[in-house]
């Protein structure tokens, strides 16, 4: 429901979020709900990464212990350790509800261990050292995923190669250079549901539009706001993929405004300790990641309104993603926003010794959450 000054969104779902581990996870997991969301599609790039059914179920149980009110959909990290048998096990684990010594808590019929598999090309971002180098090697895995109707989530960048002038790859063209891989994967596995994660370029938007209904694309809140000028020299806005040119940002905005059903929110909210965001050394760049979870729904409402797409908020933050992932929304769960003036984003959130600094700290947002049922 939308009036001039209030909006209700049914069961907002964030289809790409980093909830970390240990004390940092204790701090940031509760921010999913604080930001208005009731579903979190959880990334597996922990240290060590989440690579099998047992680890995914254990991680899910840890997240549920922190905040049981959120639905967590888990992912496995694509690596040579993954096998077609493991794919089948992950898909059907919830039916058993107990893996080895692990009790996974109250089991719903659809409580599968993993909804998707996330592919990180080697070295492109946080904890991607164990990422992949060739997609063909993984075709047996993709075949099993297609049979089991599991989702393949792609970090869509090829690795930068600064020492190789002939390849001419850097952070600005790493995403367009990846798109031939997406096209090839979709042609080889037309029934496999694939999500190109956190698209940042007009080329990516056009490519996904041109492919079949099994290919979708997530868009972050921060890429709707940032361009190159905002992260060059401003480490808090540095993330992977980096924000691109104004025309690329326009393409992201336009596809949301158009209401294209295969483009939906995945925040890629990625918390890092402030010391890792604000400092770099010649051998160690600052950490890649922008943290939006605790302000996410008001921030997305603010941004969509700024380019005339507020009427697309419900579909972008709930309907389209839920349809692609086949996760029906629960109309009893509504997050209500109210227009506000003078609301400034908090400077930081803390718990114990952990601290996180949100995107847009100190800036004004025009919406706040008033009710979250
Ligand atoms: O893909 C990613 C990973 C994320 C992280 O910090 O885990 N940070 C990013 O900026 N992009």
Account of the protein in words:
It comes from Cristinia sonorae. Residues 266-285 are annotated as: Disordered. InterPro entries: DHOdimr (IPR004721), Dihydroorotase_CS (IPR002195), Metal_Hydrolase (IPR032466). By secondary structure, the chain is of the alpha/beta class. The protein has one domain (13-332): Metal-dependent hydrolases (TIM Barrel), CATH 3.20.20.140. The chain is 31% helix and 17% strand. The protein has helices at 22-28, 31-34, 53-66, 84-96, 139-148, 174-188, 202-210, 228-231, 246-257, 274-278, 296-306, 313-325, and strands at residues 6-10, 13-17, 39-42, 71-73, 75-77, 98-99, 102-103, 116-119, 151-155, 193-197, 215-219, 263-265, 334-339, 349-351, 354-356, 367-372. The strands form five sheets. The protein has a six-stranded parallel sheet with strand order 5-8-9-10-11-12, with helices on both faces. Strands 1-13-16 form a three-stranded antiparallel sheet, with helices on one face. The radius of gyration is 19 Å and the shape is globular. The relative contact order is 0.16. (4S)-2,6-dioxohexahydropyrimidine-4-carboxylic acid is lined by residues 18, 45, 125-126, 155, 239-240, 268, 270, 288-289. Residues 18, 45, 125-126, 155, 239-240, 268, 270, 288-289 line the site of (4S)-2,6-dioxohexahydropyrimidine-4-carboxylic acid (DOR).
């Amino acid at each position: 429901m939308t009036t001039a000054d209030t909006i209700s969104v049914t069961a907002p779902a964030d289809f790409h979020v980093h909830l970390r581990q240990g004390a940092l996870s204790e701090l940031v997991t509760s921010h999913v709900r604080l930001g208005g969301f009731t579903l979190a599609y959880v990334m597996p790039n922990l240290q060590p990464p989440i690579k099998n059914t047992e680890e995914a179920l254990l991680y899910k149980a840890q997240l549920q212990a922190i905040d049981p009110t959120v639905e967590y959909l888990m992912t496995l990290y694509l690596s040579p350790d993954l096998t077609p048998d493991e794919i089948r096990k992950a898909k059907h684990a919830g039916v058993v509800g107990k893996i080895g010594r692990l009790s996974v808590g109250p089991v719903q019929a659809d409580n599968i261990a993993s909804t998707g598999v996330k592919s990180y090309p080697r070295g492109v971002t946080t904890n991607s050292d164990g990422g992949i180098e060739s997609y063909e090697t993984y075709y047996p895995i993709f075949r099993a995923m297609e049979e089991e109707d599991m989702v393949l989530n792609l970090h869509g960048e090829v690795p930068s190669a600064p020492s190789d002038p002939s390849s001419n790859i850097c952070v600005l063209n790493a995403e367009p250079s990846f798109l031939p891989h997406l096209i090839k994967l979709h042609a080889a596995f037309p029934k496999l549901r694939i999500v190109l994660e956190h698209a940042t370029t007009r080329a990516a938007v056009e490519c996904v539009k041109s492919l079949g209904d099994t290919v979708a694309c997530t868009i972050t809140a921060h890429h709707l706001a940032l361009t190159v000028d905002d992260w060059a020299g401003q480490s808090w806005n540095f993330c992977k993929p980096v924000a691109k040119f104004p025309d690329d940002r326009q393409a992201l905005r336009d596809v949301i405004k158009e209401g294209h059903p295969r483009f939906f929110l995945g925040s890629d909210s990625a918390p890092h300790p402030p010391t890792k965001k604000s400092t770099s050394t010649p051998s160690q760049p600052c950490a890649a990641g922008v943290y939006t979870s605790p302000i996410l729904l008001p921030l997305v409402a603010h941004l969509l309104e700024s380019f005339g797409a507020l009427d697309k908020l419900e579909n972008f933050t709930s309907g389209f993603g839920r349809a692609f992932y086949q996760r029906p929304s629960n109309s009893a769960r509504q997050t209500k926003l109210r227009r506000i003036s003078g609301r400034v984003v908090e400077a930081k959130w803390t718990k114990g010794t952990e601290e996180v600094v949100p995107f847009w700290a100190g800036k004004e947002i025009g919406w706040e959450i008033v009710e979250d049922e």
